[in-house]
Amino acid sequence: MKLSKSSLLILITYFFIFFLPSILISFFNLGKYYIPIQTLDYLLGAVLLSTIALQTTELNSIEYGRKPFINAIFWGVIGLGLILLLQFIINLLTIASGASTTSQNTQTLLTLAKTNSFFIFAITIGAPIMEELVFRKVLFGNLSNLLGWNNTNLGLVITALISSLAFAFMHSDGHIILYASIGLLFCWLYNRTGRIQTSMITHMLMNSLIAISAIFMK
Hints:
By secondary structure, this protein is mostly helical. It has 9 helices and no strands. The N and C termini lie far apart (47 Å).
């Protein structure tokens, strides 16, 4: 499967998966099953998107120089420390500006994880895999190739900004700078090793901290 076709298919599948729980609940009155439905939906979505990505016969320019898989694990773990440092700095700047550091998105995830332990699998596995394939692989790596910007640093910067802003707005809770900065760091990690698994690992570890926090805050 060519890069353009797989990219479009990943985007279409992602939005279908994203809205499917709401559609099912609206049409079949399954409100009380929302969390199990969303969890299963996210896990199946991760499998579907991964399958599409694996069927792609072309590599984008970032993946041409990919490092051994051990590098993805190493930088994936290092990435968690970088994410925590980044969040700490941005939170300090947010407090200095007089704004609130509370993230409604994070609070919602904590609440759901505390009351529905099954939802932890959606947070730590499903969502990170899907979001990295969509926002980093497609909207950063693949898009730079499809637009012919893959041979310039400026092109990669532009697509990194596009993907990171899209990532931030999909988590729209008023903390655009925080989420966009996290998105840029994920792009850097992906570019650092040429393997999307790098940013996936960091994303999974970051979300796992949210889930662990929810468990110990019971």
